[in-house]
Amino acid sequence: MNQRLAGRIALVTGASRGIGRAVALRYAQEGAHIIAYARTQGGLEELDDQIKKVSGQNATLVAENLTDFDKIDQVGAALYQRYGKLDILVGAAAMLGQLSPVGHYKPKMWTDIFDLNVHANWRLLRSFDALLRQSDAGRAIFLTSSVAQDPRMYWGPYAASKAALEQMVKIYANEVAHTNVRANLVNPGGVRTKMRAAAFPGEDPLTLKTPEEITDIFVDLAEASFQKNGELFKAQ
Length: 236
Hints:
Blueprint: E1 9-13, H1 18-29, E2 33-38, H2 41-55, E3 60-63, H3 69-82, E4 88-91, H4 107-134, E5 139-143, H5 156-175, E6 182-187, H6 194-199, H7 216-222, E7 232-234
Parallel strand pairs: 1-2, 1-4, 2-3, 4-5, 5-6, 6-7
Helix pairs in contact: 1-2, 3-4, 4-5
């Protein structure tokens, strides 16, 4: 690796598996210090072992549920005390829920999906905005989906939550356009993850890219030299 993120501090949510894990590991290979945020302690410890192998450094592990919103504020305060800034924020954690007609969802599932896909990401921005502004080049990157703009049947809360996320990130990008912060979205497309398998159970996973194969765009958007803002990028 070219150490394109050497010395940068990067917090990645959903870091224990899937795309979040792949991005965290790639960032470590590129020289960043990783703050890995996920609810699965075992998965985080496995990631930490891999990061140690590729970088020689340990990650900072945050084994908490993102929908415990007060914990996000506590993490933000801890980061301020320890580093005084945050260079890169990646919001990869998401929940699909079941695929069914809009009127068939139980209120709790609908709320849970929005809590993770929208409200948790808003709390991240709320808590880390000041830290990103303290960086010489704060970069916020959030994962979205093609269903955010494609009203596909049976994808109600997931699609609606991703549409809300896109608007929130673009509004935030406009608000920070005069600062050193840049905020963008990534649509990863079809990737070999557990969420994809749940959504398309009959699909051959070997026809899909692995999470590791789509990490280039995340490095590009995280670099200090990257200046595009408020845009949606598709992983290649």
